[in-house]
Design a protein that fits this description.
It is a single chain. This protein is α/β, with parallel strands linked by helices and 486 residues long. The chain folds into three domains: 6-182 and 371-388, Rossmann fold (3-Layer(aba) Sandwich); 192-366, 3-Layer(aba) Sandwich (Rossmann fold); 401-485. It has 17 helices and 15 strands. It has helices spanning 20-35, 67-70, 80-88, 101-113, 125-132, 136-151, 161-169, 192-199, 223-235, 251-260, 276-285, 300-307, 337-348, 351-364, 369-388, 401-440, 443-485; strands spanning 6-10, 38-44, 57-61, 63-64, 74-75, 91-96, 117-121, 155-158, 177-178, 210-214, 241-245, 267-271, 288-291, 312-315, 331-333. The strands form three sheets. Strands 3-2-1-6-7-8-9 form a seven-stranded parallel β-sheet, with helices on both faces. Helix 9 links the parallel strand 10 and strand 11 (241-245). The protein is globular and about 65 Å long. 37% of the residues are buried.
């Protein structure tokens, strides 16, 4: 593909929001721009973002700040700004990394400009939907809409075979291509001096096995399996150290459970670490990386550990275990604490095997982002050729009450946000008026200001009631439309 081609990458998250998919989009853009052609990232507007630091183009479209509700901003997928940029930058291919809002936008752009559309399925979105949406009716509707988006794309990529089978379990019947993500760490351990500098705050005796977990501290990542297995080692008098790097929704409960097991002198929590040098130091210091998760579709941290020649202990049959051979480039266990404890007992007695298998992990599992994006870019050429020859056939247009309802919901969220800001502004102004009058010590001004304040307060209460009625009416209207659609 010629260097003048532009690939448009779309996702609902992008720095300053950091997650695995945002990191993938950043690295796709970075290496497309560096080695192949041009990259254009489209993502919702995010307060505090500074896109001047990138070597590639970033276009942010309107959004509502819903981080307190969902942890992310919510983008409006009908953005004319996005359409103008696709035309201005002569985009060749659209690649969305999210099957929801970003995919809706990508579908509209693909229709408008007759462009091929690729979707990468990164994670188990059905679990995310189940956690976020409690209503069974809405949950089923959301999954239907998600599958409509997937089926409308020309080609589906997944980050692992397990991710593809997860997509199939939701009702997808088409083909998919496994396109693994890369690692943004170099293939080498850091120096002993750096390891000492970054890890010296913790009691890590030489010769004592050091185990590591890096990621969000969520129970579904197998953290209870780790802690129960470590307790079994402790009961047998086997010395070790365990480091948890990360935060997350279950962090408090995980720490409490560690105390309950009496492991606080051997198990340490560093909190979240974003500094890549510090993370490399921990990967280099660890003797084993423990990752008994069956939730993750890619297990990128397993390959990050491999960059430092650190082997991982993984559940057999999990997505993270793809490409792993037991005792060759990793260690496989059953999904329970007793299996992990047995493996760790064996390896603590044979530390040289940990290090030999760690070298195998580095040789066989590590893949750089540069190589991963080069592989993807080669496939872009195939997608473009197939699209020109009509291999993919016609795709479904963006239509239906679900899409319309999503747009109306965005409008409601925007109206609520604007009304809330107006109310806060009015309240601040009345308070400032009272404070100003008090400072001047003019009795009449004070009385007038207090009267104005009470009048403003009544107006605020009246506006609040009006907004509440508007929200209730809009909510009922949305439910009726969703019911008709479903």
């Amino acid at each position: 593909m010629e260097k003048n081609k532009t690939i448009c990458l779309l996702n609902d998250s992008f720095p300053p929001i950091i997650d695995g998919v945002a990191n993938a989009v950043f690295n796709y853009a970075r290496f497309i721009e560096k080695d192949h052609g041009h990259a254009l990232v489209m993502t919702p507007n995010m307060p505090g973002s500074d896109d001047s630091v990138y070597d590639f183009s970033v276009v942010r479209y309107p959004s509502i700040d819903t981080r307190k509700l969902f942890g992310y901003v919510t983008g409006y997928p009908f953005s004319p700004e996005a359409a103008h940029e696709v035309e201005a930058q002569n985009v060749t291919l659209l690649h969305t990394h999210c099957p929801v809002t970003s995919c809706l936008l990508a579908r509209r752009l693909a229709e408008a400009y007759d462009l091929p559309l690729v979707l990468t399925w990164h994670t188990k979105y059905d679990i995310d939907i189940a956690n976020a949406v409690k209503s069974k009716l809405l949950r089923e509707g959301a999954l239907q809409a998600l599958l409509q988006n997937v089926n409308a794309c020309n080609e589906i990529w997944t980050v692992s075979k397990g991710a593809g089978e997860n997509l199939r379990s939701l009702g997808y019947e088409g083909d998919y291509i496994v396109m693994p993500n890369g690692v943004d760490l170099p293939r080498e351990k850091v120096s002993d001096n750096l390891v000492e500098e970054m890890t010296s705050d913790y009691d890590l005796p030489a010769g004592v096995p050091c185990f590591l977990f890096i990621g969000r501290l969520m129970w579904y990542k197998g953290l209870r399996i780790i802690l129960d297995a470590l307790k079994a080692l402790d009961k047998r008098g086997i010395d070790f150290r365990m480091i948890f790097v990360g935060g997350g929704g279950d962090e408090r409960e995980v720490r409490k459970y560690t105390l309950k097991l009496g492991l606080e002198h051997k198990v340490f929590f560093t909190g979240a670490i974003s500094n890549r040098r510090k993370l490399r130091a921990w990967y280099s210091r660890a003797d084993l990386f423990l990752f008994p998760s069956t939730f993750d579709t890619n297990g990128l941290v397993v390959r990050e550990a491999a960059a430092s020649d650190t082997a991982s202990v993984i559940v057999s049959g999990s997505c993270a275990s793809e490409g792993v051979s037991d005792n060759k480039n990793g260690f496989l266990i059953d999904e329970n604490a007793s299996s992990l404890a047995a493996k760790l007992r064996d390896l603590c007695a044979n530390p040289e095997r940990m290090h030999a298998v760690g070298k195998g992990a580095g040789d066989e599992l590590y893949i750089s982002w540069e190589d991963a994006v080069s592989h993807a870019y080669e496939r872009y050429e195939v997608v473009l050729d197939n699209f020109r020859r009509g291999v993919y056939g016609r795709r479904d247009p963006v239509k239906g009450s679900w899409t319309q309802s999503q747009g109306e919901l965005m409008q409601i969220l925007g109206d609520i946000d604007a009304a809330g800001k107006a109310l806060r502004r009015d309240l601040v102004e009345t308070h400032e008026e009272i404070e100003s009058s008090l400072r001047s010590m003019r009795n009449k001004a004070i009385v007038d200001a207090i009267a104005s304040h009470y009048e403003a307060k009544e107006n605020l209460l009246s506006k609040g009631r009006e907004i509440k009625e508007t929200i209730v009416e809009a909510h009922e209207d949305l439910w009726e439309k969703l019911d008709r659609y479903l």
